[in-house]
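Example S7 (structure tokens).
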């Protein structure tokens, strides 16, 4: 076996994973700090593609999905995670309540998950509210989040633990 074939597909996968990890880290270092745009009391809505068979999730089920532990919807469509960029205030709510991680822990979590080959890719980073609205509608199996007052017609807004954004006791605010 020559040296080139010894690396094979596995070696290429390792190099690709290292390149992705380096890209994520470089993006993290260049990302500006979060800006205040929404008050801390603004609830965060969880959005899914309108064709999604899901209308309600428990907070525990939502966490499992967002951590990449659950990768398919009940209809067997793959779940596509859309995560707001670090400049979005609602990202802080999601990191604190759903992920229970800091920004650095979140990045490290996804780098490790990809490196261990538990996921092919990490969440797709979305830089704007309108892009989140549009992508959730356009991508079958998509799930994302926005400040509730940024949700536009199109995506389906899930209830969490049977509560809608703005309801008393809604967990994502």
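Recovered sequence:
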């Amino acid at each position: 076996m020559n040296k080139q074939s010894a690396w094979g597909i596995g070696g290429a996968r390792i190099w690709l994973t290292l390149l992705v990890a380096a890209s994520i880290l470089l993006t993290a270092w260049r990302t500006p700090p979060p800006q205040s745009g929404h008050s801390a009391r603004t609830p965060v809505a969880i959005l899914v593609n309108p064709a999604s068979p899901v209308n309600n999730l428990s907070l525990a089920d939502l966490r499992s999905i967002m951590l990449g532990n659950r990768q398919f919807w009940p209809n067997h469509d793959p779940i596509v995670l859309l995560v707001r960029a670090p400049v979005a205030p609602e990202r802080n709510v999601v990191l604190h309540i759903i992920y229970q991680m800091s920004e650095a822990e979140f990045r490290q979590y996804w780098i490790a998950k990809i490196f261990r080959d538990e996921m092919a890719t990490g969440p797709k980073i979305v830089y704007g509210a309108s892009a989140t609205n549009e992508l959730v509608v356009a991508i079958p199996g998509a799930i994302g989040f926005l400040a509730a007052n940024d949700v536009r017609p199109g995506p389906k807004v899930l209830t969490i633990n049977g509560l809608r954004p703005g309801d008393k006791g809604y967990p994502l605010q």
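Notes on this example. The first strand starts at residue 44 and ends at 48.
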